[in-house]
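Notes from the 1:1 (GR / supervisor)

We went over the backlog. Supervisor wanted to see one worked example end to end before approving the batch request, so GR pasted a single chain during the call. The sequence is below; no edits were made to it. Supervisor asked that the structure be written out right there so they could see what the output format looks like.
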Amino acid sequence: MEPDTIERVDQVFRKQRRLTFSYAAVFFFLVLLIPYLTINAEWWYGRPVWGGLTLNFLVVGIVFHLVYWLMGLFYTIQANRLEDELLNRPSHTLDSSKKGGALHA
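Structure output shown during the call:
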């Protein structure tokens, strides 16, 4: 296998850095949005929306955790694609014809 040029490696690392900072910025924004709304928006912390629980409680207790798990999953999928691109490997796909539907290169 032919080694990659420094330009090619640099291009893929720039893409990886952009992907990482994009996800970090979204996560940081969401983390800061919760206390901001808690301080400034009465509809966020003052009114029960379901079973006596406020929107703030539901988001912090349940929704926020689901969001960062999904962000982690999507980030991992995109980062793996970039790594495959760097190593000149075909992208992983879900092959449902194989037993168990495992990932295959």
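Supervisor's comment: Residues 37 and 44 are 6 Å apart (CA to CA).
Batch request approved.
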